[in-house]
């Protein structure tokens, strides 16, 4: 190691066994980041780990790790794997030669790699700095807990404590989780002057204490926008998943006065995905939270207002205006509306499951709870890609991960690449032809009763963690009687509304509904909530963009 460890600036660490390359990376990093960061250089994995251990003891922050793939003794992947235990929030980059690209791609899941960089990285302005800039941005906003962080004190198995953490995590608010019966939690409760009988307690960055806060109170205190700045817009987008964010980016960038309203946290289902590997432009994959963070910043940069904790419960036409009503009784009005409400997780129907939800049974919470499952046995219900992604994610920290699948195998329901990844993970097992018939526990989940479907035989196992990924149904009940929906509740649009060449009942305009336009003129639908949609991030974003083009057409010729 050639760099002094003195100072408090976040560290960028680079390790390469070839001294000339190691020096060159450090030189390029120092040139751009040296003023606000410390560049630490090592020439072997062991040396780099030693440096990281020293940094941990000193309470230092490490923002980015850049490791060469081919190093004698310890490869870059092995190094990054061990480094993750010391600095889990640090962003990880692998430096590879072209010939090693395959290994780098495999590493994406083993060490949750953020990027791989091909050598040589000249000119750094084009190849190195944009990558490191983006990683530093993501580290600062998502993972790196600043000094003024939010703290949540609660019980491990309290449903509301889980919801509050999930809400903060999905809104990318850095927080520290403290158990109420551990010293740090007790200290915070004492300092806040509460007895800890009502939990969770949230200590906001300004030091203000919130006892059992609602999502709206929480959003306001941690700096999320919840109140619109106007009461009339060109377009209201309902739902902040990929479709809604896509619509907001295109609408605002094309000069429409745009507001996006989201009931919980932007990102939707995609925001819950540990890694989206098939979205165009991200060859190394991208985590749902990173994609959401970028999309939200992009939408607001173009001038869209993005509001959270706004639950739309009513929609009506008043003349040419379209009015959206919210759960708190407030309203917003616009020329046009884009429905992008996506789908919600389908509930697992078995005795005991509902009572234990958020107390050991979770829906799509892989990201929030993964750290709590370290060293424990995790069960996942479902055989599709979302279940597979969650299994890969949990396998990094859990002692074992078991997929409970109703079908005879994963082949019919999961992508081939995920099946291969799961097969390579020694702590992941698949139990086909199996269903959960009951969940037991008082305070939290203790046991699961499973049935082997062909034989009907049941057995009961000890289990504290059950994650359910069994598909979803559209969140459109509130639109009943307002727009036409199919039997499953998905919103019909465009040509699908025409029956035997006839326009939908009540349609008063002298034209057919535009593509993506619902049975209420000026109201469009995008993404997973649309009948026959593709249920993919890319198609949701595409729908959002297309809906905006059609809103323009509608505004010109209603
Ligand atoms: C775990 C997981 C992994 C996935 N991985 C991939 C992948 O790798 N690749 C891929 O292409 N696809 C993946 N998908 C599918 C993809 O995420 C979805 O197709 C996509 O998110 C759909 O986008 P959407 O905007 O239509 O809906 P959603 O993402 O469902 O977003 C809808 C949003 O609307 C909000 N909302 C609903 N009702 C209201 C209301 N009344 N008022 C206000 N807001 C409301 C919801 O809170 C939600 O945030 C994955 C899905 C999951 C669950």
Description of the structure:
It is a single chain. The protein has 15 helices and 26 strands. The strands form 6 sheets. Strands 10, 11, 12, 13, 14, 15 and 26 form a 7-stranded mixed sheet that branches. The longest helix is centred in the C-terminal third of the chain and has 20 residues, at 537-556. The chain is globular, with a radius of gyration of 25 Å. The chain starts with 10 loop residues before the first strand and ends with a helix. Strand 21 (434-440) and strand 22 form a beta hairpin. The chain has 558 residues and is an alpha/beta fold. The structure holds flavin-adenine dinucleotide. Flavin-adenine dinucleotide binds at residues 238-244, 261-264, 268-270, 272-273, 276-278, 311-312, 340-343, 364, 385-386, 389, 475, 478, 527-529, 535-538, 540.
Top keywords for this entry?
30% helix; alpha/beta; 23% strand; 26 strands; binds flavin-adenine dinucleotide; single chain; 558 residues
